[in-house]
Design goal:
about 230 residues; alpha/beta; Beta-carbonic Anhydrase, Chain A; 10 helices; 5 strands; about 55% helix; about 15% strand; binds zinc ion; zinc; Carbonic anhydrase
Length: about 230
Amino acid sequence: MTNALDDLFEKNQQWAAATEAREPGFFTRLLAQQTPQYLWIGCADSRVPANELVGLLPGELFVHRNVANLLVHSDLNALSVIQYAVDALQVKHIIVVGHSGCGGVRAALLNQRAGLVDNWLRHVQDVRDAHEGFLAGLHESLRVDALVELNVLEQARNVCHTTVVRDAWQRGQDVVVHGWVYGLHNGLLQDLKLTAGAPEDVNLAYETARAQLHQRWRQRNSQLNA
Ligand SMILES: [Zn+2]
């Protein structure tokens, strides 16, 4: 009987062999330690493979992914990842990455029902409702991707508010929080310019990024209406 997943094992063997051929001793070296500089908090979407799109190898990126790249204050899973990344691995950067055309964000925006996940996406709806006035001023076709970016800003700010990051900053540890968005249509990352490396940076970084976001999307909106 052939296994429907044989393909994956075959591809895995090819990948391992090619990696080892390119860099002999690659896997045995990784056994000894992982020293990633970055923690990536991204969407679970299969079209947004974290390592691949920034060209990083195993061992170079610590990754947490969930539907719509959320950092919920009481999510023990995500908080544990951040704690281990900051305290044990001493990552220098935590990057929240949203992506255009996010199905989770779309469902949240349009109140589409999909089941249990609706409860998770309620957090995105909180973001939507907090920015209701701004979103209402945009053409329908722009709202999903604008909400994707607003959601990144909110989640990045949530990361800044975790006890883990607060404590690290208080100790004087060098860790910077960023908010990025990935374009499904062109494979490119964009920095949303929310960059915070100290408690006193957070509000200004958020306000500045949000002002730029508003300007960018209002400009797109007026081009659409022109
Ligand atoms: Zn997504």
